[in-house]
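Below is one such protein, fold included:
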Amino acid sequence: DRLVSVTEGTRATVNVEVQDLDARTEIHRTVPVWLLARTTAPLYVQDPSSGNWLDVTRYLGAFVTPHAPSIMRFLRSAADKHPQKHLVGYQGDEEEVASQVRAVYETLAGSGITYVNSIIDFTPDSGSAGQHIRLPRESIENTSANCIDGTVLMASLLEAISLNPAIVIMPGHAFLAWETWRSNDTWRYLETTMIATGTFEQACTRGDQTAAKWLASGADQATFKRLSLRDLRAQGITPLE
């Protein structure tokens, strides 16, 4: 509850005390640290012993919040956009999956969500690289989102209806993917920056083309990353709220 109020980089201290079995102090140190803003997602952290940069983009999965009340309320409106007036995940048949994603996309488009390129991050430590990111409820409240904001917002809505979305990360950009059927490892892609300007078909075409281009180029997993939410949850990465 204390960390919720941290909206900018904040100085703090870590107090470390080690005692033996007789309660005698063996080590007592106080170390200054920075607390990152709750809206800062660390992407890479430098290992101080080796100097290598460690990839921690998997923790973007914490910003996917399917159980937030605003997400659940939003899904009620999305269900009204679906031809059968329901959102059932992978129940039913495979053809229904895309229509559910469409209903979510069109509801977001109708809500007035606008692309805003706000990526500046005030990370005071040169040993880390981060990304400013809005929680999905903030994007809904403010009707604005950049590429990663829109991606975690749509991923939250799709995970909430028991689909398996993925966060796709490539140099300088992020967009959405979803598994077309349960555990079939077949993926469709969607460009979330087009929510305010393009149709569902156009956003899917752009996303599919971008993914196909990078995959055809032989990009490795460090360059083109598809972070499946099902896999991230299995790794213990849980929603922030």
The longest strand covers residues 25-35. The chain has a mean pLDDT of 90. The CA atoms of residues 150 and 192 lie 6 Å apart.
